[in-house]
Amino acid sequence: MLKQSLNTLRYVGRVEGISFLILLGIAMPLKYTFDLPQAVRFVGMAHGFFFVLYLLSIAWVTYLHRWSIWRVLGAFLAAFIPFGPFILERRISK
């Protein structure tokens, strides 16, 4: 159960990180360069869903592993930094 929770956080972090990069790198330029707000609407909604899953995964891992407040805060802040979830995944793997 403990290893499964970390694997879930790593997987959800990857998906959330990829959706964030797609939102910033593809959808937003499409919106502001080619006036296509539908891209941001669709990708933004998907990213929001994955962000909530990421937060729930952090909560689950925190409960099972008794993470410190600093580790939880670091995992939370990683979601707001491009490539942050990938850095967190690497730190968790160690």
Automatic annotation (TrEMBL):
Keyword Mitochondrion belongs to the record: no
DUF3817 domain residues: 7-93
Keywords of the record: Cell membrane, Membrane, Transmembrane, Transmembrane helix
Transmembrane regions listed in the UniProt entry: 12-30, 42-63, 69-88
Subcellular location: Cell membrane
Family annotation (InterPro entries): DUF3817_TM (IPR023845)
Pfam families linked to this entry: DUF3817
Predominant subcellular localization, coarse grouping: membrane
Any GO CC annotation of this UniProt entry: plasma membrane
Origin superkingdom: Bacteria
Signal peptide (residue range): none
Membrane disposition: Multi-pass membrane protein
NCBIfam families per the UniProt record, alphabetical: integ_memb_HG
Annotated protein name in UniProt: DUF3817 domain-containing protein
Lineage, broadest ranks: Bacteria, Bacillati, Bacillota, Bacilli, Bacillales
